[in-house]
Amino acid sequence: TYGAPYPEEMGSVIAQGGYASHIRAHEYFTFKIPDNIPSEEAAPMMCAGLTTYSPLVRAGVGPGKKVAIVGVGGLGMYAIMWANALGAEVYVLSHSPDKEKAAKELGAKEFISTVDKDWDKPWAFTFNFMLNTADATHKFDLAAYLGTLDVNGQMHHVGLPDKPLPEIKAQMFARNGCSMGGSHIGSRPEMFAMLKLASEKKLKPIIETIPISEDGCKKAVLGVSKNEVRYRYTLTDFDKAFPNR
Length: 245
Hints:
Helix content is about 30%, strand content about 20%. By secondary structure, it is α/β, with parallel strands linked by helices. Strand 3, helix 2 and strand 4 form a beta-alpha-beta unit. Helix 1 packs across helix 2 and helix 1 crosses helix 6.
């Protein structure tokens, strides 16, 4: 973690997290990366990967399940990839029609544009589980999204915007007995299971590597602020940038 103080007997140093060149950590919080997963692909799995993998497996996503992934971004990319790898039938809900090709390359069976009028009507009572990875939930017509869930289906949030959810009425849950929840990150056993799945199925996330430098960091920050990332940046070439550390 970044900014956490070590105990006084260990020197009272401050942890640098992802900004560190090296890290000393308890073995419980370290994970062996399979040999066939490059470091630049493994790095974002440690956060976005696990954040999306965990709720999918806890919900029992697998063969015979219809899963809706809301959003195709840094989280949604992984959610689509995991749900497909777990054997589910994957549907993507997005307000960005230009992301349909990427969604299907990652394993989506159908791409549903939520900018279309009454987009939800044909999909009523369809999805067993919905994973929301978007950060614009405050703009959602939640009744429309919840109405696409099958009986006792769940809408689960891992996209965590700063703004509050839209107004919620109890009637939204009554029609199909659906529910909502949320989470972030996941457990140690889930981390190992996620890495095993990625390794065995040779899963490849869509990432862009940027050499770490003043210009590289600037490009990454500006790219995120302008929503130009497709779909994760990974900073690389640390040894070249800091040869004398």
